[in-house]
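Teaching assistant here, posting this on the class forum so everyone can see the example we discussed in section. The complex has four components, and the goal was to see what a joint structure prediction looks like when all of them are supplied at once.
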Amino acid sequence: MTCVSATPNSPLSAGSQSLGAYLKSARSALGLSLRAVEERTGKAVTNGYLSQIESGTVTQPSPNMLYHLAQAYDLDYGDLLVRAGHRVPHSDDTAQRGILAGFPMHALEELTEGERGELLDYIAFLRSKRPSSRGR
Amino acid sequence: MTCVSATPNSPLSAGSQSLGAYLKSARSALGLSLRAVEERTGKAVTNGYLSQIESGTVTQPSPNMLYHLAQAYDLDYGDLLVRAGHRVPHSDDTAQRGILAGFPMHALEELTEGERGELLDYIAFLRSKRPSSRGR
DNA sequence: AAGCGCTGCTTAGGATGCTAAGCACACTCC
DNA sequence: GGAGTGTGCTTAGCATCCTAAGCAGCGCTT
């Protein structure tokens, strides 16, 4: 047991901790070993790799990895994303219309995904049909 | 309507578009060149790399890349994340972000009045092509 | 024709995520 | 002592992302 750090660091209050330090605190708080976490994530995060993350050898794990860790530690996934330096979609506003006020949006809403794809292609087709402008 | 059989010519037409095909449609609808997009993203996404994404050579671009593309095309960032196979924070309630989330409104804004008319006709055409029931 | 600029596309190579395997140390239990 | 198990940690190597540089083709201008 080489390290068992002494600092009782509550992972929830960590302000500017690096991702690795934060995850290490979290694991320590839960009293889990590296391999226990590997087990918890269903082998999605191997113990060696987790060690790399905690030590800072790996600085930006993929969202998928972070998700599994969030699950294993019961942490907030979005928070982990931010700590890893990923952008998080701010999923709020749905309404800025503007020029399109006249356009019947519900017509679009009724389309299926595939139909919307076709529509995009048709828009491209309309543009390609225009007199001379090549791409703009 | 002019029509000219735009449907069969569609390179992707239907179903669940791959990320690449979707991004290609979006770019095409906006009438942007690969290098124009590179410019728009402030060189964050190079033209060659974008080509790789569209062609499927690169299947899972980083969230950061997707963010820049979402900005450039005025698409929903979260939607792109999902299409790229990344997990999205609040995705417990799966499908119900804005239905129009994936649609590039800019593409509509740039159309002329007449073209918008044709587009509406085409939407009507799409709907008429369906197997009648409107529930879905 | 020659040159220019734009188009999409390819490719070598560096950087990084990520895995599988193994190391050294510490604690048992026979 | 020796075997077995658990700990954190390291490392070779592969896969993938991503960049920089370049390719050929097309249309336009002189």
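For the discussion questions: Residues 33-35, 47-48, 51-52, 54-55, 57 of chain B lie near DNA strand C (CB under 10 Å from a C1'). The CA atoms of residues 10 and 22 of chain B lie 12 Å apart. Think about how each of these relates to the inputs above.
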